[in-house]
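Hi there, hope your week has been kind to you so far. Please have a think about how the structure follows from the sequence. I've dropped the whole record in just underneath, so have a look:

_____
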Amino acid sequence: MYAAPAMQSPMTRIDPSNDRLVDDHADSGEKTYATFNHLAGLLGLADGMGIVAFIATIVMWRLKTNESPFLDDHGREAVNFQISMTLLLIAGWVLWGLFVAVTIGIGVVTLPLAILATIALFVVRLVAGIRGAMAANRGEFYRYPMCLRFIAEPDEAKQYACDERAGVTPGGPIV
């Protein structure tokens, strides 16, 4: 599954029932905050473009980013997803507008398809946001589908992930 982040530390384990990385040290307050960080993304359904969702998730993430790796990961993932959904929506409508312009207005008959694509993005935003919130509430890390990672993991996390793939961990070889 794609649902686990690349890094695993001594504070995390992989849940065998769903192959997700779980942070056993995330307390209930962290889980609740991460849950609401994902649910804040649903505000994008209210404003249509996702601008409010982006602002809400980035503010929530930046407020708690240094308090816990769990909150940092969930916040970064929620922000990346909101950026991705907003850009997909804008790009889709711009491309549709260009198509209509190039076809000298004949392409306007594809408006129902553009509306269906917009609805599909809203459904993806809704379902993925709820799934992210549920994973956060269980203490699991989560990766959104259709998400471009504009805000990357910190360099030390990448280095740890490289070391882990090579079989080198601070505690010895991976068993």
Summary: The first helix runs from residue 28 to 40. Confidence is low (pLDDT under 50) at residues 158-175. Strands lie at 12-15, 20-23. The CA atoms of residues 35 and 133 lie 4 Å apart.
